[in-house]
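step=predict obj=LysR family transcriptional regulator n=305
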Amino acid sequence: MELRHLRHFIALAEEGHFGRAAERVYVVQQALSSSVRRLEDEVGVPLVTRSTRRVELTPAGREFLAGARETLTLAEQTLERTRRAARGEVGHLTVGFVGGLVFGGLPEIVRVLRERSPDVGVELRELSAAEQEAALRSGQIDVGLMLLPVRDPALEARALWREPLVAALPAAHPLAGRERLHIHDLAGEDFVFFPRHQRATYFDQVMRWCAEAGFSPRVVQEGLEVPTLLSLVSAEVGMFLPISFFQRLGMQGVVYRPLEGAPLIDIVAVWRRGRKDALLDEFLGVAAEVLGPIREEFPQKAKAK
């Protein structure tokens, strides 16, 4: 049973005349008559009664008409959803992210994506970088947001934005009165930081920078999440070196100071190598579009770069 045969039958039922129905669907009358007879043969019962003046539906034909209309409507809706899926306007996207990104970047990306494509379902999963890589390989998530580097050859990555490190200090700390700091200024200070297994890439990059400056940070307290570490800074337990967008947290008792020559941390989107689809492209496009204004929130970044 072909959709064009259903269209021919509906036109005949609504026009009640073979000639007018044929003109309506742009076929010759013989072709339309053949379509209707083919339907009747397939259904196994007469659908119309024919006369020289008018065509009328049989009781079976009236029932078939209702179903034919529903079938065509469903087919058209399916085609439209398929086309919209090809444009990245419908579907489901599962996004993995490292926890800190909820304070910079991720909320803006999701909000714009939902406004622009309300029929795209977005599921968020907070995962470490290693967990995201495993979830990408197994297909449990579609795209991940994490920090470089990504070494797995089965994955592709695109840098979305870069953030310098800043110094988070207790408001009463003597260094808080200075507008800018150098990494050497922090030698001998107490630090709070993540355990290495929690943020290995971030941890190693910070420790390498400090080592190049001639000292190893004295970590006196560890914490698993950025708000926890900033609370420890507020309590004057030690200082912390977060990525600059964590200034958005506005933690009471904490001040942030730019660091001369601070390394830039790349935040990247990661997906399975070879994956090509419009929904992923839409996500990456929205991410690139909305992250520019975020970078401009803190003027010292341009100087740091």
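step=describe
Confidence is low (pLDDT under 50) at residues 293-305.
step=end
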